[in-house]
Design brief:
single chain; about 180 residues; mainly alpha; Hypothetical protein af1432; binds fe (ii) ion
Length: about 180
């Protein structure tokens, strides 16, 4: 994307991000930094990785009504579980918010944000990058995740480790 476009998109995202709780803003920024690092490792577009990280949780603290409204606006299929527990639809909701506010943004960014909580094993590369960055973001301070973050392994292997971690039951389980 052109530099002016990238800056314009980032400004729109930052304006919305400023309305989120401080801790969540810091989480989105840390995830964006990590997504850029993984993008460099695999040779993916770093600006798209940064935008995906910066926007992925924009609707994380929205009301259930707003979450479902944005999620439904995408036209994507929303699972029954998400209908019952709207917080789980915060990825599709953020995707819907982006489609409305930055319709020209890349479809890879939209799909990565939509699926960041429950990525498929064969997800597109940017979806994998965002899911890994989000799961391993260090402020979470979860020992088994720190272990995977610090492993010296290729990216695809790290993604498979993240998929394994996501399937583990956790007492303090919070959906990222
Ligand atoms: Fe999230
Ligand atoms: Fe997140």
């Amino acid at each position: 994307m052109k530099n002016e476009e990238y800056k314009k998109y980032l400004d729109i995202i930052l304006e919305k991000q400023a309305l989120s709780p401080k801790g969540l803003q810091m989480h989105m920024q840390a995830v964006a930094d990590m997504a850029v690092t993984y993008a460099k490792e695999v040779g993916y577009d770093v600006e798209s990785a940064n935008l995906a990280g910066m926007a992925h949780d924009l609707l994380r603290h929205a009301t259930p009504e707003e979450t479902l409204e944005y999620a439904h606006s995408t036209g994507f299929v929303i699972s029954d579980l998400m209908e019952k527990v709207p917080m789980l639809a915060h990825g599709p909701a953020a995707a819907g918010w982006l489609m409305k506010n930055i319709p020209q943004i890349g479809v890879d960014v939209i799909l990565a944000i939509r699926d960041h909580t429950f990525p498929a094993d064969d997800a597109p590369m940017l979806t994998k990058i965002l899911a890994v960055a989000d799961t391993l973001e260090p402020s979470r301070q979860i020992p088994e995740r720190e272990e995977v973050r610090l492993m010296r392994i290729p990216f695809e292997q790290r993604f498979m480790e993240v998929q394994r971690l996501k399937k583990l039951p956790r007492k303090d389980k919070k959906q990222s």
